[in-house]
Amino acid sequence: MRQRRMLWQLFPSFVLVVALAAGGVYLYTRQAYRTAHYHEAVHDLEMRARLAERVITPYLDAHDNDALDSLVVALGRAGRTRFTVVGADGRVLADSEEDPKHMEQHRFRPEIAAALRGEMMASRRYSSTLQRHMLYTAVPVLADDRVVGVVRTAIPEDAAEGGIGTVTGTLAGDVVVGGLLLVLLAAVISRLVARSVVRPIGDLRAGADRFARGEFDYALPAAGHQEIAGLAQAMNEMAAQLHERMEAIGRRRNEQEAILAAMVEGVLAVDTSERILTLNAAAARLLRIRPEEAVGRSVPEVVRNSELHRLVSETLHSGAPVEGTIELAGDDERQLQVHGTTLRDGSGNAAGGVIVLNDITRLRRLENIRTDFVANVSHELRTPVTSIKGFLETLLDGAMDRPEDARRFLEIIKRQADQLNNIIEDLLALSRLEQERDGEGCEVTRRPVGGVLRSAVQSCESRAREKGIALLCEGDLDLVAPINPSLLEQALVNLLSNAITYGPAGSTVRAGARRSVEGVELFVADEGPGIEPRYHERIFERFYRIDKARSRDQGGTGLGLAIVKHIARAHKGRVTVRSAVGQGSTFSIHLPHSA
Fold it and tell me: Mind spelling out the 3-state secondary structure of 173-208?
């Protein structure tokens, strides 16, 4: 609906009131003139009838109807009035307009009936004789206090109205002119009054607009009418209070946003219809959604996870804290621990729910790795210990008396003891590396990586030669990086040993260095059977073997790649693998520019 200014609501109203008042005066005056003129016309007709009564009385007494009719016609022409004489029996004796012989009985005409009763009466009605509206006045003719006849005078109603029209026309002109002048004066006065009322209200509106824009330092002038001044003062006080409350709300909002943004846990607030009210960056990251697209939409629309929907619904309807675990499918499957509680308003009524999300993916993975590690280390240690124990029991049962069997069994025990020692040494090495990583890290110096690469290749040349594998050292060996030479050489030796172990005879193993975005990349590439992509992450876990029987037969401890990973981390770097089945493998140690 279109809104209008108050000025154009008050001003036309004032003018309309004045115009209506002038119109009412005009109508009242016109009606008063009409009434007065009507009474004047009736009085005039009555006077004419009274005068005619004296003239026609002798004719009535003589019963000379012809002479009476001639007299009546003469009177009608002279006075421009219709005269009718009616006998006591209601029969028309004479008429100035029509032949009395052809006129019907008038006894029941209202004015005639009243006159026959001795009363004077005036009436307005339609004349069937003249076929027009007439104004009638009838007076009784008395003789010895007895009604002997009736004299009736009449004029056309429009003739009477004509006089009224002349008077009212003059009156209308005067009233219109006076009314226009009055309306014009009222318009000027009403506009001034309206502006005096509207201007302060406009100032209040302008001030309210400034308050709405946050300009709380502005103060409305408390002047003018008492009511307007009081309203301005109240609005100024309201603005001051609103300013204080908005600042308090702003501080609380900033504190809340800072807390939510700093939280590692995801926080999600929903209303009673499961529409998202707010969420922090952690929740958006965990649920893989965009906050600007999620707020205002329901949880089922945003997140496709039936278990989360169930927990949110249970939180809203149970009224008690809710806990559960959900899994989010995707490229990196995640496990989230969900805590839900009811969100209440200031009155204590349920207004929604708060959902807290904890990413326990890494924790669960570490638990699984720890479980696997305990199982694997137990198995790896049990194998040589069981073998040693078995062969010792065999020797004690009599094999010692057979020198050839005794020597063979002792050699097997020695190999198993060496394997057990290697496992323990690797575990101790891993422990030292973890302590260095958790502490201040290993000592590093900036030097070329070529010397470490050559030393590692030289350490493995004899073993490679025995298997018929060629070892190549290539790349930019003059690249400089912060390194610990002994640890880095140990990592490279482990990678080269694996490459020689799993590489086929006659193949080539390449070791080298090249520049990378992070700094320096040391790589070892073989032409072995390759590794399926699904194992790329797990091969760096302790004791993890893709082919357990084959790996153990090769003499490995299952800790080599785990040691490489921890040495890379000790250098504040990382280790990666690029491999596919049947296409060989390339292991890379990425070293940063600076430690």
Answer: HHHHHHHHHHHHHHHHHHHHHHHHHHHHHHHHHHHH
Q: Which H or E run contains 84?
A: strand 82-87
Distance from C-alpha of 589 to C-alpha of 481, rounded to nearest angstrom: 12
pTM for the complete prediction? 0.40
- Asked if 108 and 120 count as a contact pair (C-beta separation under 8 A), the reply is no
The two tokens of residue 389 are 């124990």
Contact between residue 546 and residue 530 where contact means Cβ atoms under 8 Å apart = no
What is the Cα–Cα distance from 499 to 460, expressed in whole angstroms? 10
**Rounded distance, CA 234 to CA 241, Å?**
11
Taking every pair of Cα atoms in the chain, the longest distance, rounded to a whole number of angstroms, is 196
Q: What is the CA radius of gyration of the chain?
A: 61
Comparing CA positions, the residue from 84, 98, 65 lying closest to residue 154 is 84
3-state secondary structure labels for all residues of 257-284: HHHHHHCCCEEEEECCCCEEEEECHHHH
**Nearest alpha-carbon partner for 548 in 368, 423, 379:** 379
Q: How far apart are CA 284 and CA 306, in angstroms?
A: 18
| 243-298: pLDDT as tens digits | 788 888 888 877 777 777 777 788 888 888 888 888 888 888 888 888 888 888 88
pLDDT tens sequence across 469-490: 999 999 888 999 998 888 888 8
Alpha carbon distance 495, 502 (integer Å): 11
DSSP 419-480: HHHHHHHHHHHHHHHHHHHHTT----EEEESHHHHHHHHHHHHHHHHHHT-EEEEEE-TT-E
**355 closest CA partner among 418, 398, 307:** 307
**Residues 39, 31 contacting (CB under 8 angstroms):** no
- Tell me the C-alpha distance between 451 and 447, whole Å: 9
Residues in the chain: 595
Interatomic CA distance for residues 105 and 93, integer angstroms: 10
CA distance 589 to 516: 11
Calculate the CA dihedral of residues 160, 163, 164, 167 and round it to 10 degrees.
Answer: -170
